Batch of 4 targets.
Target 1
Amino acid sequence: MFSTLKTLMDGANARADDRLKDVYAIELIEQRIREADANLSAAKMTLASLIQRKRSEEKLVAKLDARIADLTTRATEALASKRNDLAEQAAQAIADMENERRIRRDTVEAHVTRIGQLQMSIEAAHRRLVDLRQGAITARAVRREQKSQARLNKTLAGTSAADEAETLIRRVVDQSDPFEQSQILGEIDQGLSGSNIAQTLETEGFGPATKSTAASVLDRLKSKD
């Protein structure tokens, strides 16, 4: 039972972690890029230190070469002058410097190997960081598109600002024309009062005219002739 509960809890935690990563994916990407950039900077500092130590060892090796060459010349001259005691002292010093030179040359070679490896790692990390930054740009663009699409889907699905605007447009367009309504009311009133019948009879020429017409004006002008 406890094993089942633990499995369920682990699954719930994993799902919650996935949801959290989905929500803050861009922020997590940017944080990981900052960490990778910091690691790359630290590696560059290490590389610079290794190169500096290698150069220092190379300078010491060069100095030992010069000292060994000088003492060798001097020891040779001492032997030629039968000063074996001085020649032996010089030989011991030369032996000591040659041993030191061998150790320092081994150190230089080790630095060269380590520098080569670290340079390759830094170059690979740099290329990967460039790809990560480009990927982050793409991810941000995709996330903006996703948010825009989500807002559009919300607008298209159900009640929205567009739906409300369409409803208001229909209310305005479907309203009755007040001027036309007034004319209709006037016609209704005329029908109820019988005035429209009198007007129809007047138009047909029955009864006296109550309004001037173009025909009546022409008849009056002709009668004056």
Target 2
Amino acid sequence: MTDLKEKLLSSFIAFENQTNIDSYVHDIRSEAIKQFESIGFPTKKLENWKYTSLKKLLNNDYSVLPQLNNVLEFKDIRKYLIDDIDSYKIIFVDGKYCSHLSETTHEGMDICILSAALSQPKYELIIENYFNKIANDDGITSLNTAFSNEGAFVHIPKNKFVEKSIQIIHFSTGNESSLMFQPRNIIVVDENSQVQIIERHQSLSENKVFTNSVTEIYAEKKSIIDYYKIQNDNLQSSLIDNTYVNQERNSTFSMHTFSFGNELIRNNLNISQNGQFIETTIKGVTIIGEQQHVDHNTLINHNKPNCNSHQDYKGIYNNKSTGVFNGRVLVNKQAQKINAFQSNNNVLLSDKATINAKPQLEIYADDVKCSHGCTVGQLDKNALFYLKSRGIPQKEATALLMYGFANNILESVKIPEIKTRINHLIANKLGVKIGFNL
């Protein structure tokens, strides 16, 4: 752990010298690297990291400033795209923007890359208003801030309905034996605008990959943001995904997270409601096996009255896999008439699988409607017996029960093609073929 930290600290000056930024961002980066040097990587001594250790992950000798570039063709990445929808595409290969595989635009809105926004004077004001304004200053986020240079930059101006979804995909090709990425995304959706975004990180080799991603999302008044994260990488890849969301009055934000792959996934999702009449929905499905580890750490911060939040996470764990759910709903004193719902339900398919669940309500207001619940169990043996008695084999019967278990999460997916894709991923994860879509 110490070796990687020292390598990152010693690489920072070289990184700064090879990027073209203004003094404002330089000062933020310099302060962030000092913060990382002081705090370092999170350990299990921290309450929020009690059940997730990075020790094994950090023992690899990662290349932190990759120089080699691999050229990919569309046929190499097609199966990882939602290719049956018309969409904008922001594609990165080994940390570098790949223009010939991407489809961006500056016509009436900016759907492009962060490096361009950081280096061009016309974006200076929006960078100063939004870059690193809501991200935490913990060690892992500060590390990303220090090395932030590339990622998606999306700015949707007022009164704009973005007709096409936006796909943000980061590919690693295996040029380096072990590689560390620090992608940074900024999403700004102005008043009364609407957008749908799909995000994915995908390794194309069996080499070790460690991604430490930070996304800042700003939902201005009356805006609607529908966000999807598909996490289905191979078992040599690990992901720490830090997402920070700021919602203003009458905005609607929803996020669906589908965690099926990777050796280790840690999702840090921090949402602040900073206006009245806000709607927030976060949902997730986790299906893992072998020795995979997925940790969902969420915070919904209710700062104003008359708002709603809905949180629903479901997990299916097999073999020696480990799941963690640490969901916190904070209702501040001034946030009266809040309706907050939180649910975490888990199924263990193996007696060696583990789930650590900690749903939390922290309420300082007295006129609220808040509820939470958590269940951990096994498959309903009576339901399984019933299906088998109707001639359905064990595997298919198990899959049907799992589909039923996850169904309410998929029902709220607003893009039919994503629902179909996730349906197929679940079937593949369970090792069965199902002739229907949810």
Target 3
Amino acid sequence: MSVYTTVSAEELDAWLARYALGGLAAFEPIKAGIENTNYFVTTERGRYVLTLYERLPADELPFYLNLMAHLAKSGVAVPAPAPDRTGALFSMLCGKPASLVERIDGAPRLSPDAGHCAAVGEAFARLHLAAQHYRGRLANRRGPAWWRQAARAVRPYLSAEQAGLLAAELRFQAGANRMRLPKAAIHGDLFRDNVLFAGERVAGIIDFGFAATDFLAYDLAIAVNDWCSVADGELDDARTSAFVDGYQRVRPLAAEEREQWPTLLRAAALRFWLSRLYDLHLPRPGDLVHAHDPEVFERVLARRVAAMPRLPDARAA
């Protein structure tokens, strides 16, 4: 659990007065998350998720929250932000920008099968189609410039072999940084814990804290690396095919996206290996902070470098 900012019942109840949602009935911290502080909040009129944004500057929040509102309005399974009495989607709470979004009933599938992957692939493609009509733009703050900065910061903590893998991949990605692929707003973090299921149906895609404007196929690669990898970092063929086929039933990939797929998988693995190394070795002060194991994505990256997997045949595209 990560709780960087502790909120009292009195502070929260006073803050809720700006909403037409009734008074505070109950609240509890959410046992997940690294970037932000999150609470489940129940008011007299509904159930919500409160997020206090620990790193995001307030001037970037309209991109994230308006994106969620746009997607929800477009029929995508995402929680809609709750506007306050003035129509604003966020305001300050305990010195941090904070928002409320609808709470979606469901649970993540942390050990997904091919059926779950197919369902998420379809839902993700619908998100990407709707995102292409979103006007907001925001550079990816965890893009190549951040990779280089983070690499310098974590290098003292790496073995010679790890440092070699990191340096080689940064050189490789620098040469691939001129790709011209379809761009739009991406989720940026579609891991298994960010998709809620109700039975076998995708009930909601949550946690847009890493949303940005970037390559849609890169966003798909981020998801596939998490949903479809086995313990040694290799891709599971059945889950990968199900995820990609589900996606392409809704949004077929362009030839250029298919061609760059191996490079995008490597870029996605590099990004999360670096962020986990950074969180492990250079943590922020906070209560009950949990850092994910960076070795998971070190193995994924090493496998992607060794195998350079191509996209599965688009049987259902």
Target 4
Amino acid sequence: MLQDSSTLVLCIRHGETDWNAARRIQGHTDIDLNARGLAQARALAQALAGQTLHALYSSDLRRARHTAEPLARECGLSLGFEPALRERAFGSFEGRSFTELESLHAQDCERWRKRDPHWGAPDGGEALQAFHERIRGALLSIARRHRGQTVAMVTHGGALDCLYRIATGQELGAPRTWELRNAAINRLLVSEDHVGLVGWNDCGHLDEVLDESGA
């Protein structure tokens, strides 16, 4: 158990998908892991096999769920699904690359590139500010349920970008200078409403992961 009421949260991005490899926007589209992503999930489970975890949560999208399941089995934990940990919704932009979209939606892409907090993609896209608030709320909710404990949660790249900014005080509009590697382990310490950064982009367990698809 941790001292006082702080919660150590291990935040993990899902393993690789074919759309990750092709740089296509996933959002809420329910894409599964590819062969490399499945290997990353197994490596993650082995890396955390000796870690005391009191609970494990995941986004309900398959790429996150199937990353978390080997870890759940390894640690003997039930897996809790949290829709609030989903990736940012990108409406009609999902399935396309940014390069494709620039020629069709130049103004939208410019606002996206500049990290306009109030912009959302057409047809149901989520504004950055709303997404940031959703992810912060999910983190604090999980931490409050497990005061003094260590928990893990498997989520998405955009969510981890928000979590890093929350923990380091980075503005929403600041350029990203940190990595968001698939299946890396990132550690945050949450005490009431305060979030601190303990460690980021722990990926030594991924060094030996081969692309089993041969691609």
